[in-house]
Design a protein that fits this description.
Helix content: 40-55%
Strand order of the largest sheet: 1-2
Strand content: under 5%
Distance between the termini: 51 Å
Radius of gyration: 22 Å
CATH class of the domain at 42-112: Mainly Alpha
Largest sheet: 2 strands, parallel
CATH topology of the domain at 42-112: Helicase, Ruva Protein, domain 3
């Protein structure tokens, strides 16, 4: 009786190096190493995070029978900046935790996700209760305080057309800065992200959100 078997093996260990150190059978390594596929960790392909966030959100809202509107802006920014030591499985677990914890009909916020000692990059700004730019609180789960943005110097005033920044929402400020920067670099998203102090994935997410993408 003939048997046709195809073996697909996955590992997070460098098997070639392990074989050279005598920690993995060299003959088995060469039997397995027919068509290797290297999949970088999630922290090295952050442009995939928005797509995975949306995929897991849809999966778990169906699975748990919840109505969740999405992610708050600061939650999306934090997930895009997070290093995910647990890789895609950690992102999957975080989104499922958020779907379970968030109020039905509401959005997933940081307080619904990071409850198991994860180390977060501290955001510099958040949105005040009236939609104004405010310094982010030390506790990412705490409500953002109301604080007007400083008027800034003449260059900033020129950028915003002389508008009173304390009366502008964070979204208006952000969109103005993004549009100005993209115009400066002739639409180069990677360079605009670098100048704005964002990752390319973070800027791409903001642009897709403005164009009506998930």
């Amino acid at each position: 009786m003939k048997v046709d078997v195809r073996v697909v093996a996955a590992t997070n260990v460098d098997l070639r190096a392990a074989a050279q150190r005598g920690e993995f059978r060299e003959d088995l390594f060469f039997r397995l190493n027919v068509f290797p596929i290297h999949l970088p960790p999630l922290r090295e392909r952050k442009e995939d995070i928005p797509l995975l966030m949306t995929h897991f959100l849809h999966r778990f809202t169906r699975h748990h029978g919840r109505q969740i509107s999405g992610f708050t802006p600061r939650t999306a920014d934090t997930l895009l900046a997070y290093d995910f030591p647990g890789n895609i499985r950690e992102l999957q677990n975080l989104v499922e935790r958020g779907v379970i914890s968030a109020p039905d009909g509401g959005a997933i916020d940081l307080a619904h996700l990071f409850t198991s000692g994860e180390r977060l990059a501290q955001p510099m700004f958040s949105i005040g209760n009236r939609g104004q730019l405010a310094a982010a609180p030390n506790d990412p789960a705490a409500p953002a305080p109301v604080a007007p943005a400083p008027a800034g110097n003449e260059a900033i005033q020129a950028l915003f057309g002389g508008k009173d920044l304390s009366r502008m929402s964070l979204q208006e400020i952000e969109e103005t800065m993004i549009d100005h920067c993209l115009a400066e670099v002739k639409g180069n998203v990677s360079e605009a992200a670098r100048r704005l102090g964002l990752t390319r994935a973070q800027l791409s997410y903001r642009l897709s959100r403005r164009s009506g993408g998930d």
